[in-house]
Write a structure and sequence with these properties.
Layout: E1 5-6, H1 14-25, H2 38-45, H3 63-71, E2 76-80, E3 94-97, H4 100-106, H5 108-111, E4 115-120, H6 139-146, H7 167-185, E5 186-196, H8 201-213, E6 217-224, E7 240-247, E8 258-259, H9 262-266, E9 270-271, E10 277-282, E11 302-304, E12 311-312, E13 321-323, H10 339-344, E14 349-354, E15 359-367, E16 369-370, E17 373-374, E18 376-377, E19 382-383, H11 390-401, H12 412-422, E20 428-431, H13 438-450, E21 455-460, H14 473-492, E22 509-515, H15 530-539, H16 550-560, E23 569-574, E24 577-582, E25 587-590, H17 597-605, E26 610-613, H18 622-634, E27 639-642
Parallel strand pairs: 1-27, 3-21, 3-22, 4-5, 4-20, 6-19, 20-21, 25-26, 26-27
Antiparallel strand pairs: 2-22, 5-7, 6-7, 8-18, 9-10, 10-15, 11-12, 11-13, 14-15, 16-17, 23-24, 24-25
Length: 643
């Protein structure tokens, strides 16, 4: 009998994904059982395979457990919290409350390769400031106990003290799987920024080199975060932190610069025939690698017409004056453009007679605007603006919340720098150590400044604060973002939009990590335990957990079918039954407990790509289930699954 597939309630199977990618690249390594022949893979790759026992790399106690943590799928779900949200039905911003390791696993199917920029401010490992599951194999269970969602059996999240013999190792074990899973979410042109201090910056750099590739390292920025210096430091008062920057693929990555000041714009004082402002830059390379021997192919003559000051690569009666890239010392230098580039953009080059030297020099037009956008300046590797002081971050939260609820959060100006550099106007920004929600405020502020449509995903553990007003850090985060939205909306009230009337997305959807809505079959029951087996079967008479709503189930199916949590949804009625349509009809979800043949036929006639129904909707009617499989197949539905 034809049976529909069962919807896989696990998060993305990362080992299987890696295996399929290898088989796609090297089909010849497939064995008869669909596995990978390592010996054949070695032959395929030839001498590029390192089979030696000693090799350069980083190792620490527990690293093998990191890979087990990465490969262990999550059986959790993300339950919607519309009552804690702002504009839940329309916004595309997310605040997710939960352990970020589990959440990153749950996002793998829906957000794989879709995130343009990640920023995280992880615990700096100062001796007592981070908590994490002690047992990776039970991370969801540990989280549920930690948050009181299930009865505690003594498991807990723990701190990391310097007295512990595995002080650095435990921090690395916490960071490595999260960085690994985060990389999967980045677009090919994506980039990750990580704040860190001196204590773990070297270790962080090494594991990022392994996870992201040393060739994808962009920079280590030094940020003056405390101009007065930390007087509690033993010998020298530290004034700085760092931001490490890595790309997913350095060949695809493009970072933006910062906007020019008015004085810098004034340098572009010339105007061409089209009214475009520009300045002249010498075509001879200055600074490092500026000698002829550095790039011999970029040492060649350019010929000047004294009457028109135009240039050519070919000498003639009109173009009679030869100019070579010679340095002020008299030694041979080189041009910053090669022959092909000079020929291609020859109209952008002009000559000038340098009176004091009585000789010609060659310059290129450097325009204020490029491709319709005003140019920017590259960020430097030292950021020392006073706005980046962490004390500013404290005051920003205090001004919004009206209380000292969060010690030393990152200031909004720092995140504005990072987001403006690493994102484009319509990209998604992820922060999975969200803290008080500075990233969300920076996204809103930047969108207001430039009319952008950036979205954010924040993830924060509901870490207890010991306070009555804001019981957890995630509560602080949600309240801060609510107040930022209220403040910005108030500022805009009665004003005309400066960006074409486009309404800003000022809202967020709250989701909370929980056990799956569906009770999982325990495959590890002892074969002879009849009582335990009977209890398991009784559980599956109704396999949906008590207290779960249709919205809970809907979003779990959406997430585990590979659709984002902000996918547009429509609800309509067919034969008196409710059907949800996701992404313009790409996916139909029917949660009815009493399916009919007519309902199946009408859904199939609408030709969705995929359909998911509750298994209990067939009420044991195997004939109806078999008919549904055939009806959907004949109407071109590519996937019909039950859950």
């Amino acid at each position: 009998m034809d049976e529909p597939e069962r919807l896989d309630l696990r998060s993305h199977d990362i080992p299987e994904g890696r295996k399929q990618e290898l088989l796609r690249l090297f089909p010849e390594i497939r064995t008869e059982g669909g596995k990978i022949d390592l010996e054949r893979l070695k032959l395929t790759l030839g001498e590029t395979v390192d089979v030696g026992k000693e090799r350069y790399g980083m190792n620490w106690p527990g690293k093998a457990d990191c890979f087990r943590a990465i490969q262990s799928p999550s059986l959790g779900t993300l339950r919607p919290g519309p009552d804690e949200s702002v504009n839940f039905d329309s916004t595309e911003n997310l605040i997710i409350e939960g352990d970020n390791l589990e959440v990153l696993k749950l996002l793998q199917k829906s957000y794989l390769g879709k995130i343009k920029m990640i920023y995280i401010d992880p615990p700096y490992n100062t001796g007592n400031d981070f908590i994490y599951p002690d047992n990776y194999n039970e991370s969801l269970q540990t989280y549920l106990e930690y948050t009181g969602q299930v009865d505690s059996q003594g498991k807990k999240f723990s701190t990391n003290t310097e007295a512990d013999g595995r002080f650095h190792s435990k921090w690395l074990n916490m960071m490595y799987p999260r960085l690994y899973l985060a990389r999967n979410l980045l677009r090919e042109d994506g980039v990750i920024f990580i704040s860190i201090d001196d204590k773990e910056v070297d270790n962080l750099r090494k594991i990022c080199n392994e996870v992201y590739g040393e060739e994808n390292f962009i920079s280590k920025v030094t940020v003056q975060s405390n101009p007065r210096g930390r007087q509690s430091d033993t010998f020298l008062a530290s004034v700085h932190d760092y931001v490490l920057i890595y790309s997913r693929n350095i060949e695809e990555c493009l970072l933006k610069g910062f906007q020019l000041s008015e004085d810098q714009k004034a340098e572009f004082s010339l105007t061409d025939d089209m009214g475009m402002k520009y300045r002249l830059l010498g075509l001879r390379q200055r600074g490092s690698a500026s000698r002829k021997e550095d790039r011999p192919d970029m040492f060649f003559p350019i010929y000047v017409c004294p009457k028109t000051l135009k240039v050519s690569l070919t000498q003639s009666d009109d173009f009679s004056v030869e100019v070579l890239p010679r340095k002020s010392t008299g030694e041979d230098g080189r041009w910053m453009w090669g022959r092909q580039k000079v020929q291609k953009d020859i109209d952008l080059i002009e000559a000038k007679l340098i009176e004091r030297r009585k000789e010609y020099d060659v310059f290129v037009h450097d325009y204020l605007e490029r491709a319709g956008k005003e140019r920017r300046r590259k960020f430097k590797t030292i950021w020392d603006d006073k706005e980046l002081n962490t004390q500013n971050g404290t005051q920003e939260v205090k001004a919004l919340i009206e209380s000292d609820v969060m010690p030393y959060p990152k200031p909004v100006a720092l995140l504005e720098n990072i987001i403006s550099m690493g994102s484009d106007d319509n990209s998604v920004v992820l922060d999975f150590f969200a803290g008080s929600g500075t990233t969300a405020q920076a996204v809103f502020e930047l969108n207001k400044q430039d009319g952008g449509n950036r979205k954010y995903i924040l993830v924060q553990l509901p870490e207890p604060t010991g306070r009555e007003d804001y019981a957890t850090i995630s509560d602080i985060c949600k309240e801060r973002v609510r107040r930022v939205i209220k403040k910005l909306n108030s500022e805009d009230e009665g004003k005309l939009s400066l960006h074409g009337g486009q309404k800003q997305d000022r809202g967020f959807r709250v989701f909370k990590l929980a056990e799956s809505n569906f009770k999982a079959w325990n495959a590890n029951l002892p074969t002879g335990d009849v009582t335990a087996l009977k209890q398991q079967l009784e559980l599956h008479i109704d396999h949906i957990r008590e207290g779960r709503t249709s919205e809970d189930i809907l979003y779990e199916i959406l997430l585990k079918s590979g659709f984002s949590l902000t996918t547009p949804m429509e609800k309509f009625s067919i034969e008196g039954k409710t059907v949800f349509s996701a992404a313009g009809g790409a996916l139909f979800i029917c949660l009815e407990r009493n399916l009919t043949l007519e309902l199946i036929r009408v859904m199939a006639e609408k030709k969705p790509e995929r359909v998911v129904c509750l298994d209990e909707g067939f009420a044991g009617n195997d004939q109806l289930k078999a008919n549904a499989v055939q009806i959907f197949k004949t109407k071109g539905v590519t996937s019909f699954k039950t859950v």
